[in-house]
Here is the input.
Amino acid sequence: MNKELILEKTKAFVKDKLYGESSGHDWFHIERVYNLSTYLCEKEEADSFIVEMTALLHDIDDWKFSEGNETVTTTTENYLKSVDVDIKSINKIIKIIKTMSFKGGVVNSIQDSIEGKIVQDADRLDAIGAIGIARTFAYSGSENRLMYDPSIKPLDFKTLDDVKNKDNHTVNHFYEKLLKLKDLMNTDTAKHIAEERHRFMELFLDEFYYEWNFNKKSL
Ligand code: NI
Here is the structure.
């Protein structure tokens, strides 16, 4: 198994597949998660091939694109077989991807391998901070969601159907997910980076409400 060659092929495959994707899971998201993952990987004892491959492939079968079927990883599996990744590595990569996403915190997404912890941290770091804010509004736009409605309070998700409810506005997403991610980081390095990004989101929300309520009159 020529790992270098497989990684090169995988970058080209993912770039081609996700380049124009506009809901926040585009190629540049993958590139950022890949870069964050390799950074975190340097600080841990982990298998860098598994980390890099998982970072590159983690959104190819994203549950939001698979009509809500979060267990489907067919495209990723077929791809890994087509480039002759050994079965042990395929199983590791698929296992991480299947349990990676937050899904409103209603399903178990605990990673038992260090490689899984790293890529999950990287994906979560890219969901917060300035980039996280931008991605959140971009994704909501693609779902025709309202930016904000002060009368609709954040939900306490109980089931996956609650998470998929489209009648929610974007600012609630900060309370339902983004502001919770800081405390869900696995590695110390990611915790540290998350602190700063978290603070930036709090500042953003303060300013948002300040501008929203400026000289407020109800019409
Ligand atoms: Ni992702």
Observations:
- The mean pLDDT is 90.
- DSSP finds ten helices and no strands in the chain.
